[in-house]
Amino acid sequence: MSTEQTIKELVERANAAQKIAEGFTQRKVDELAAAIVYTLSRPELAKEIAEDCVIETDMGNVESKIAKLTKKMPAIFYQIKSVKTVGIIERDPEMGIRKIAKPIGVIAALIPSTNPEATPIFKGVLGLRARNAVIFAPHPKSKRTTIRVVNIMREILEKNGAPKDLFICIENPSKELSQELMRQCDLTMATGSSDMVKAAYSSGKPAYGVGAGNAAVIIDETADLSDAATKIRIGKTGDNASGCSAENSLIIQESIYDKMLELLKKEGGYLATSEEKEKLKNTMWVDGHLSREIVAKPVKRIAELAGIDIPEGTKFIMVEETGIGKDYPFSGEKMSLVLTLYKYNEFEEAVDKVNRITGYSGLGHSCGIHSFNDDHIMQLALNTKTTRVLVRQPHGAGNSGNWFNGLANTFSLGCGTWGGNIVSENVTQKHYMNITWVAEPIDRKEATEEEIFGDLLKDVNL
Q1: Cα gap 217→241, rounded to integer Å
Q2: Domain with 165 in it
Q3: Can you name the residues that pair with 317 across neighbouring β-strands?
């Protein structure tokens, strides 16, 4: 069977299921979503899925993957369950406006190999709540995990009187099948490599993409250094730094640099010598490309591959750097338990370093700061091309939303036009539905020229 025909048959099945779901009430979709999240967040099942996932992909760690299933997904559901997705979702009597939620149809969900256990649940639940069908395109290296999760979700649908084909998974994934799916679906939710995101945008159908990460985090002289070190360790080591939000570079004020370095060592950081740094570089980048052999791997394995000895208990490796750009690969995204350290003197220099680092890799994604100086916080926020600025938080744990901040919980992070995306926010429930605006006549008088322009023209040349 041809690629086109294979996908056509899947889309036809999904469309038939979606037509049934279109008649679901808000209560029905919420019950189905709750059942899915509850079932897949049970500790025993979550542990089983996480262990199998790590065995299959040889990436990440079991503890972090369990947390994504038992903590992160319930947090996401808690945040979205109050968002109406059926019928009239908003009224503005004064303006004569009513908004009605409508399904998109069939959504293509690209699933990355770094998060094959949780991203299908996220995209599936949000799609389902908006009465869509979702076809999942797993990464070939993690298809077993994704297929298993999707099959569990299908069983829950069937048990509760919903068509199981609201969720369909491509069982023998390939780049060609993913590309054809994007051409035939109504919308693509693209999480994965930059090539796949670009392919989604070139498919001829609407798409929400994500941008590459490369979080640079400033630590200034007002920071609580011990707190900062702990949070950096938490953010950096989650799932072996497989996530796009993990801290990649620290930019530390030189007067506190030595103290901060010692605190990072206490948190499990090992500072590589210049010779060890060179060995790491030769191991981590092959022909100018980041080696898959070190991505999201345990720190001990990275050290062994590089031929360096690290102390027992090491959680991440640190390298000191001064340069930024293609000749200095440690300034880029590493997706591994390796953290780059920079010094700065004046704060403007720190902001410039953030801009140069993200300009080289990760434009639009995010940056962070450990500081109690609001002028510094706002200077960073106002002068960087990043869509998120995290303040005094573990970047890898907070960037996609958490209980300790107000960001939308997600597994998809839009990076604005800087990162080649259409949204500059965390992708969440509102992005999974269409809205019909009902506009009725209102009694509103036309504004005068004085009301329209006020004093805005008095100092301009006309």
Answers
A1: 15
A2: 3-210+424-438
A3: 270, 338
Which residues have a catalytic role annotated? 244
CATH code of 259's domain? 3.40.309.10
- Whole-model pTM? 0.95
Residue range 378-399, pLDDT digits in tens = 999 999 999 999 999 999 999 9
Q: What Å distances lie between residue 347 and 10, 247, 392, CA to CA?
A: 55, 19, 17
CA–CA gap between residue 151 and residue 168 (Å, rounded): 8
The answer to whether position 419 is within a domain reads no
pLDDT tens for 61-77 read 999 999 999 999 999 99
Q: Enumerate the H helices of 91-174 as residue ranges.
A: 119-129, 143-159
> What is the number of domains present in the chain?
2
261, two tokens: 């370095």
Q: Is residue 226 part of a domain?
A: yes
Same domain, 206 and 220: no
Rounded to 5°, angle at Cα 281 from 293 and 258: 120
